[in-house]
Amino acid sequence: MRVLSRRKVRRWAMVAAGTALLSGLPAVVGALPVPAPAQSAEQLRTRIGASAAVPYQGYAQSYVNLDLPNLPNLTNVVRLLDGTTDQYVWYRSPRQWRADELTTAGEDDIYQTSRGTYLWDYARNELTKVIGNQPVRLPRAADLLPPPLAVRLLSFASRAARFSTLPAQRVAGVDAAGLRLVPADPASTISAVQIWADTSSGLPVKVEVFARGAAAPVLVSRFLDVSLTKPGGPALTPRPGPGIDRATTALPDAAGVLNSYGPPLPDVLGWIRRVANPTGLTDVAAYGRGFSRFAIVPLPHRTGAAVFSAASSAGVTITVANSTAVVIETPLITMLLVRSPAGPVYLLTGAVTARRLEYAAASLLGAA
């Protein structure tokens, strides 16, 4: 055996110590205390609400645990709201951004550009340009990114909602101030929303949503890596290579399609008023205020029958205004499907209690 000199032993010991220090540096930095920002809850709320102009790029992960049943034509939505979603994002402005959702088959990308919206499907090897506005659409992965999610949740807060500050955190290397929102809506299933945002720009970097009676959040969205820098143009422009299928799709007239399955929805359901909708849709509507807002959607006959049948095996069957209905409750989202005696199957859904939806459905059938 070869005996090392003391000098060599000392040298390698220093190398090993330096390597250990560098390896543990991120954890050490993350464990350092974050200075408490000198701003009130209202100031932080205002700054977060104005953060849409802040450019950024990074890698985000969201986790949602709602235990939703599989429903026809809603497989992607169920997957999005019941599992982990990983995304890369490049954001310059509300009209120019890109988000890449990582999937088991590769990735699904969405580009928002000045020329329209582009959808890249890796599994199909297809790039689709979408022409037209989307007054009504299903949730998509980009909705779960911390910045748009936080701004949307804050927009639901009523005047009676309570705001307070939380201890600051370091999220993805960013010193983030904490804001806690407690809704004042007793019919909402949301007990609290917690947001951490960059202390200087107000950009949300972490969001937690708590259901009533839950000690842990049922929805968590946070950046694992983020840079508050403006992404370059090439990252925001779809550039299909050779062999990529290209397609263009024009969205149908949503008002013409969705306004044909039953009578127009009323302006008031009992004492619950309808939310103003400038899109011209009469048969797709939101009702209520703040976090107790819910939506009503009439389903086409064939789709409605299939969804109602699938929901019956996963939910609880009840009677509403002498009609058969099915209620599916999750920690956060409640869905109620009811058969109209002479019309479509109505879907009522929102982060509200089943009792609120039952009342709305009874009022709807009484008005229809």
The backbone outline, from C-alpha atoms, is globular
Instruction: Return the domain count.
Output: 2
Structural class: alpha+beta
Name the quaternary structure: single chain
Q: How far apart are the first and last residues' alpha carbons, in Å?
A: 93 Å
Q: Give the helix level as a range of percent.
A: 10-25%
Secondary structure layout plus pairing:
Elements: H1 6-31, H2 41-49, E1 56-65, H3 75-80, E2 82-93, E3 96-103, E4 106-113, E5 116-121, E6 126-131, H4 146-155, E7 162-171, E8 174-182, E9 190-198, E10 204-211, E11 219-227, H5 233-236, E12 245-250, H6 254-258, E13 268-269, E14 272-273, E15 285-287, E16 294-299, H7 301-312, E17 316-320, E18 323-329, E19 334-339, E20 345-350, H8 354-367
Parallel strand pairs: 6-12
Antiparallel strand pairs: 1-2, 1-11, 2-3, 3-4, 4-5, 5-6, 7-8, 8-9, 9-10, 10-11, 13-14, 15-16, 16-20, 17-18, 18-19, 19-20
